[in-house]
Target: 2'-5' RNA ligase
Amino acid sequence: MATQLLLDGFENLPGPTDRLFFAIRPDDEATAHIERLVARLRIASGLTNKPIARERLHITLFWLGDHFGLPQKIVDLLHLAAAQVGTGAAPFDVELDRVEYFGRRADNKPLVLRAAPGAPGIAALGAFRESLGAAIGFSEAKRRTASFTPHVTLLYDTPPVARQIVHRIGWPVREFFLVHSLLGQSRHEVLGRWTLGGELPVR
Model:
């Protein structure tokens, strides 16, 4: 009974509210191509769930933790690391050309647009990500480096979209972002934006 009393209420504790991650984003032209692709897939396969909003389309470079509130000290350190990496990094292009589901669950899976191994720009993206991870110095970031699969999440739904090759969608990567996701609110706020060669003002 005592054990039960100690555990009572733990299931009602609030979860983290804030997520941080580094990302790159498609430019306006690539975003328009992605939106047209998603529209075709939804019509062809009868998907009903809403697509990810255009302002939230991205490729995650590093997940930087889920937090209870915005950890300003961590944000400040990430700004310093990002500015260091951005100054020395060279721009590159990236291309994505296949659609598939991620995850093992049966329903509400993420449907993603991803790149083939060896696709244009993927090696450069991986090299940039490694330099960013080294600057961050987080053990969690390092642990995730080996399993990096560049992708843009399009929507969450139940299959039946078949894995398929699509017309390549690419864009020039000239900047990267530190993003603050407000969990459960479908909102992203840009906390930092850096060009590959120098920092730009926060949007």
Summary: DSSP finds five helices and nine strands in the chain.
